[in-house]
Each structure stands twice: as C-alpha cells, then as structure tokens.
Write a structure and sequence with these properties.
By secondary structure, this protein is α/β, with parallel strands linked by helices. The protein has a single domain (28-235), classed as Rossmann fold (3-Layer(aba) Sandwich). The chain has ten helices and seven strands. It has helices at residues 8-14, 28-36, 38-41, 74-82, 95-108, 120-126, 156-165, 179-190, 203-206, 216-223; strands at 63-68, 86-91, 113-116, 132-138, 166-176, 195-197, 229-235. It has a seven-stranded mixed beta sheet, sandwiched between helices. Helix 2 packs across helix 5 (95-108). The chain is globular. The relative contact order is 0.15. The model is unreliable at 1-20 (pLDDT under 50). Its EC number is 2.1.1.33. Belongs to the class I-like SAM-binding methyltransferase superfamily. TrmB family. Substrate binds at residues 145, 177. Catalyzes the formation of N(7)-methylguanine at position 46 (m7G46) in tRNA.
Amino acid sequence: MSERKSDPDREDSERAFFGRRKGHKLRQHQAGLIEQLLPHLALDIDGEAPADAREIFDPAADDVRLEIGFGGGEHLAAEAQNFPATGFIGCEPYVNGMAKILAQIEAANIGNIRLFAGDAAELLAWLPKASLSRIDLIHPDPWPKRRHWKRRFVQDRTIAAMARVLRSGGEFRFVCDIDDYCAWTLSHLARSQDFVWLAERADDFRQPWPGYTMTRYGRKAAREGRKAAYLRFRRI
C-alpha cells in the first residue's frame, strides 16, 4: 500500500487496517462477481450515512453486525444464514476474499450481507453512532515484528471508533492464535473506559462461543498446534 506523504491524517487512518489488495489471479466467474454482483452489495461511504444503519438493508434489518477482515468469508456467510433478520456488513480489502464471499452469497442466495472493500477505520467513521450490536475481528494479521505493531487493527483510536458505533450492551469479539496479539488486545481493551472483558473462567476464552463457525485459518492453526483465544468484550 503506497503512502501519501501530503496527507498525514489519511496515513493514520490507513494504518488502522492493512492487507494485501490482491493475491492469486481471479477465475473468470470470480471476476464476473466482482464486476456484476459487488456493485449491488457495496457500501458507498462517500455518500451520507443513513440515520439508522438498519436501513442499509432491504428489507430493513432488525439488527446490524460488522465483521472486519472476513478472509474467506466462512464465518460471515454462516452467521448471515443463521440470523436472517440481522444485517451483516463485511469489510475486506483483499480482493480474493471478496470474490470468495460473493460466491457464497450467490450460491446460497444470501440477502442480508453488505460489503465494503476498503479501510475499516473509514467505515467505522462513516457508520452512525450506536448503530451496531456486534463487531467481529477473527484471526487478523498479527504483524508480529515490533516495528509493525502500529499496523495492528487493535489500537486505542480504533477501540474508540468501535465504542462510538457499538450500542450499549453490544460486543466486540476477537479471535487470534498468536499469544502476543491476544495479550496486546487485552491490555488495550483493559485501559478503555468503554469495554469490559466478559470472561469469568478460563474456558470462556479457551473455547469458541456457542455457534461459532471455525474458519479455514482457524483449522490450519489447530493443525499446526496453535491454540486460539476467543475474547469477548461488552460495550458499557
């Protein structure tokens, strides 16, 4: 991702979400979905946000949730099908991931997902205050090298941004198999006045929450001997 030296505010925003824009060449059908289906589902944050985020969906959703960096889309697609009255926004700048979720939407005729192929921080800034019931961040890039820690999504500023769009009682859920990033997330959320960690015993973060859909990355981590933590934080 190129830097914009003349716009430091935008640079700060871009640091909130880093990801590869494109990987393997898309197959013909995938490219067709990007060209034809994505425009019907993509959010245009250059326009004014609706007063009520539930109005993003047609028909209007009972509730709205956001998944940041949905990867292959397995979790997002499963949640959307399990909760058809809820509206789901998926944010993913990686084009191949976007193609994968579009294929699942087409195959299962999923109507309650909207997509944003860009910077999650910009999406959070656009969404109305207290408009979401939940935000999921599942196996994000850990950026393990110390000099890259500023690129991790979980930062004080993004925590504040999530707190603004989550309603009271809403949740931020974080899944990661990298111990250092889990500790980082716990320490950053602990100093926030807006969130409380919901774990009461070890199994509350060692085991997935009920109904959790394991992703391909999660299965790969388990095969390679890495144990994930499943962290839940309630918006006060």
